[in-house]
Predict the structure.
Amino acid sequence: MATAVATPEIVRAPVARKLINPWVIALTVTLATFMELLDTSIANVSLPYIAGGLGRSYDEVTWILTTYLVANAVILPMSAWLSRVFGRKNYYMGCVALFTLTSLFCGIAPSLGIMLMARVLQGIGGGGLAPVEQAILVDTFPAEKRASAFALYTVAIVTAPAIGPVLGGWITDNFNWRWVFLINIPIGLVSLFFTNRYVSDPPSFAEERKTVRKPSTDGKPGKLNIDALGIALIAVGSGALEILLDRGQIDDWFGSPFICWMFVIAIACLGFAVWWELHVPDPVIDFRMLKTRNFAIANLYYFIFGLGLFASTTMIPQILQTLYGYRAIDAGLVLGPGAFVITLLAPVGAQLVQRKIVHPRVLLFGALITVGISMIHYSHFNLATDYNHYALARGLQGLGYAFFFVPLSVVTYSQLKPNENNKASSLTNFFRNWGGSFGIAFATTMADRRQNFHQERVGAASTSTSLQLQSNIHQLATYLQQHGYSAADSTYAATTRIYAQLQAQTQLLAFMDVFHWLGVITLIVAPLVWLTSNFKVGGKAPEAH
């Protein structure tokens, strides 16, 4: 009888999946993921307007970004376990629905308190989208055609954070900052409709879901295997670490008792969590998968990917706005060529892998070298560098990323069993997310420290007794006097102008140092790809057991 009851579900699922074009499923799940990743950066340029609209200080409204990132970081590593508990489709739709509803609350929030509560819930909803989408793509496409699906995923995760500031600036300038959040509602509703219609859990996932419950002898569903301590440790540790990274530079790092406590809590909780998860039968995060060589190296690259992408995406608009006088929307447009190159060439990279023209390891190595070179190229810019050079450099960086993610995804799943795909997607997004958080913290902190370093050097060489400095001030003061300034005013204005120029120079040098180190780090890790175990592209995955 048990077989008779189970048969209709098992038969219908494969038939439905054969009738539906897998690209319809891919586009459906990518839509919501793109929306969520867009939200990680779209509100950045709108913060001053939000502060004015809610009657709060700029420092207070920066928690709008922090609360979202914290909630995102907490829920993301648990997404694999939660999708097993609720079912992948149900969990995905629940995340989209929560994200959409809370976007409405963010858009109509009358106070900062309500806004922050809505952002926490929005982060919880958004945190499950990217890993579940990746797992759906892996299970929807056969191994030999998976590269093309990863190309679509590449476009989403790379371009969404890049165009976020541009779109946010345009919406804020032409409409109202509330539409930065309200724009998610129609997209979320469309995603829910198509997900409900076209997406289904594969039959093999039903077997995986059984592992989340204890065996039962009475025929009823067993009790859930809840790794309560692991969930608590990861939630508290991830939240503390995200606050540490996001607020560290603002609060003077370890000069702040609050940041010191966040550091202690993060290290203690995450350190114990790793030990605990390695010793429980059904962990919420299966760190034991990192024993698989290809998967471990791939996760290092996911971290480096997040580090470089988010650090550069944060710095470039800041450089152009503060040092070159660009408007927010114009600074964001510099990121456009990179997104265009990725959109154009990621499918080409997929075909190179899928048709076995280039082995994924070769393509991945070349992509990392290209990204590293692009970062080094940035580090040679100066205050005379124009828009075209920045756009071309971003295009070069995009060229590297276009051929990076597809072969990396193939390497990631090359040694994994089918029943490990769900847990794998959660871990890879966990490392990518933390790479992004560390990248932003690294860029802001190192830029500040290096600017102090360059200011000390310039200050030591430009004392009041410096003949070169005095000559520059005198020449500029003379010019100003010829244009109507008094002797006293011209000297003051000339001194102030020269100081501002030195400030701009030291700030640019600091940013260039950050690009240099990002390039060096990327080039150092590139050869590690040759340590991965060899594998056959599109080959049969190891058997699940």
